[in-house]
Amino acid sequence: MSIALFAVGVFAIVFYVTAGSTGRVIPHLQEQENLLGNPGFTGTPSAPSQLREDGNYDTGGDWQMLLFDGARAEARPVNGAVQVAIDAAGPNTWSVQLLQAPLTIEQGQEYEVEFVAWAEEPREIEVKVGGAADRSWTPYNPGEGGNAGGTMVELSTEPELHRFRFSMLQETDTQARFEFELGREAGDVWLAGARLTPVGTVALEMSVDSPEVENLLAADWELRFAEEFDTPEINRDIWSFETGNGHANGIPGWGNAELQYYTDSPDNAFIRDNRLVIRAQEEERSDQFGRYDYTSARMITQDKLTVRYGRIDVRARLPYGQGVWPAIWMLGSNIPEVSWPRSGEIDIMEMLGHEPYTVHGTIHGPGYSGGGGIGAAYESESNFSEEFHVFTILWNEDVIVWLVDGDYFHHVTAEYVERFYAADWVFNQEFFFILNVAVGGHWPGYPDDTTSFPQEMEIDYLHVYDRIRS
After folding, report:
1. Which of 126, 345, 456, 458 is catalytic?
2. pLDDT at 21 over 50
3. Taking every pair of C-alpha atoms in the chain, what is the biggest distance, in angstroms?
């Protein structure tokens, strides 16, 4: 059984004629198990009394219409279909939605989506099965864009039956959403049937016994670069500072609804006892975009130090507390040209401050980004905020391996990404480093009465090794 995302196809099956205002011959969906209620769109989709920021709607097994970004549209039943008349489309596909939630989408399950649709003029729509805000709006059927998008579908002016499959590679979501996203263009769209059906299971485990992983674990390494933080001040020939809350970069809250304002102040990043200290503090800052209750630092090596392949060791002690989010990570150097997530992201280490015994290693790319990144957790018997630990990746053109204190806990191969996600492996290029401590965000949550400040991440060293070829 194939487990990759199937291309959208058009299938001619049993037809029947509907009378009335459609005047169309409409394909008929076969009777099968269906997780969707009201698959024939009878009645008029309701509008919620208020838009929910968390996205966790309960539509009661029926359809609701959601409008964003100033979009204007009206949904009304016609014989055998629902007609969505879009007067103002909004800038995004999700500006106009027909939504059904909550649905339970189970990890390791393969699903098939079928629907009948057509439009006043040929156009693209998006169909997304995914999570709400607590899942970072992750698509479980990711399209090429990857970050928040699902499967793009070309509609013609005649009714056609569209079908695709996807595999649920994330943890089971009992609050999932099914969305027809109809925005970007004004005009009429018709939907005459929809089905979401489980059709099989897939194996998700990756074996550590793969030759690529064994070869990397057994390799010998030679030190190429060492940042020991043994100068009185931070070395600006290696490190630059990103400042603000992300607004100037076009990603307010740095894309994660974070609360901190990053500075280049020596109060937030400095050298102490031959170690780099990044300190998150509870203090006010403001700029033209707003006011912030926390400061911290975000240091990068972009255009100064880049790496492609090798072994990377970072020895660090981590901060802790609800809403505190330290990270040691990398971004593809081509991000100015291709943007994220196509640039790729390698998270060497992330920790949620309320879980000080657990760290995470993850990759993000086109079709597996945000809450849909491919990652794993490492649980330790010791508190990462109390002792120093060495966080490591081993990396070549086909695989990335994660270790803590020399203990293997995760790997991802190019074959796995291409096979399970039907997506591109974007890790055969130069990457630069990022060190930061964030405060708040969708994933870690936000500080509460139990969180104390200041919180510090201490980094003893960053070492880069080349593999010694025998």
Report:
1. 345
2. no
3. 81
pLDDT tier at 354, thresholds 50, 70, 90? very high
- Helix (H/G/I), strand (E/B), else coil: 305: coil
For the chain, the average pLDDT equals 90
Beta strands in 36-122 (DSSP E): 64-67, 72-78, 81-88, 96-105, 109-119
Cα 39 to Cα 115, 184, 197, 224, 433: the distances in Å are 9, 25, 12, 60, 48
Q: Name the active-site residue from 114, 126, 185, 350.
A: 350
Of 32 and 154, the structure prediction assigns the larger pLDDT to 154
Neighbouring-strand partners of residue 113: 164, 196
Token pair in block for residue 329? 């990570």
Alpha-helix residue ranges (DSSP H) falling in 220-260: none
pLDDT at 28: 67
The mean per-residue pLDDT over the stretch 379-392 comes to 96
Rounded to whole angstroms, how far apart are CA atoms 115 and 100?
14
Clarify whether 345 is annotated catalytic: yes
Contacts of 62 (CB under 8 A, 6+ apart): 37, 38, 43, 45, 46, 100
Find the Cα–Cα–Cα–Cα dihedral 213, 217, 221, 226, rounded to 10°: 90
State pTM to two decimals. 0.72
Catalytic annotation present for 171: no
Contact 239, 146 (CB under 8 A): no
